[in-house]
């Protein structure tokens, strides 16, 4: 298309975060969607909440149609300097020192609270049957 595309930092793009000036970062490109806010079938709020970050996942999660993507190209204003986008934090499972609950004292107490009455009941029934069979 001739000419170089402008490259924006995320900080620059993030300034355009309100309904009178709204820019989005999707798949490495920057889009000025201000004029589209009122027409967006998904509403303006979702667009505004996708500002100031890489909105690629938000955009993809909706499963936008090809025509939505074509429309989007009309709002292209430049590219994002990807080094300014924070990398995603990898999910790490919380380290649990005590994830074998079965051995925790609380579990044993709970187990005892359940087993002791059961044991007493069993004993009572046993004695009753035993004494009954003796007297018969
Ligand atoms: C330039 C960017 C965007 C364009 C041109 C665009 C365009 C469209 C279009 C045409 C539709 C109708 C369905 C379809 O054809 O796929 C739609 C639906 C929708 N969009 Fe976007 N969209 C953009 C960005 C976003 C972003 C960043 C989000 C989320 C943060 C979003 C959320 C939604 C939702 C939730 C719907 C579904 C509405 C419904 O079916 O009830 N859109 N969008």
TrEMBL record:
Gene3D superfamilies assigned to the protein according to its UniProt record, in alphabetical order:
Cytochrome b5-like heme/steroid binding domain
Query: Where mainly located?
Result: membrane
Q: Write out the annotated subcellular location.
A: Membrane
Query: GO MF annotations for this entry?
Result: heme binding; metal ion binding
One GO term describing the cellular component: membrane
Which controlled-vocabulary keywords does the entry list? Answer: Heme, Iron, Membrane, Metal-binding, Transmembrane, Transmembrane helix
- Name of one Pfam family that matches: Cyt-b5
- Asked if the keyword Protein biosynthesis belongs to this entry, the reply reads no
List residues of the Cytochrome b5 heme-binding domain. Answer: 5-81
Transmembrane ranges? 111-130
**Family note:** Belongs to the cytochrome b5 family.
Protein known as: Cytochrome b5 heme-binding domain-containing protein
Native organism: Erythroxylum novogranatense
């Amino acid at each position: 298309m001739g000419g170089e595309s402008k490259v924006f930092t995320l900080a620059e793009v993030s300034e355009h975060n309100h309904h009178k000036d709204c820019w989005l970062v999707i798949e490495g490109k920057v889009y000025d969607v201000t004029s589209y806010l009122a027409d967006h079938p998904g509403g303006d709020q979702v667009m505004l909440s996708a500002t100031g970050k890489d909105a690629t996942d938000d955009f993809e999660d909706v499963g936008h149609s090809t025509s939505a993507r074509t429309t989007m190209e009309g709002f292209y204003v430049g590219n994002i300097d990807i080094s300014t986008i924070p990398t995603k934090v990898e999910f790490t499972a919380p380290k649990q020192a005590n994830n074998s609950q079965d051995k925790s004292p609380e579990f044993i107490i709970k187990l005892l609270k359940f087993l002791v009455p059961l044991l007493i009941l069993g004993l009572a029934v046993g004695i009753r049957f035993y004494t009954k069979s003796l007297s018969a």
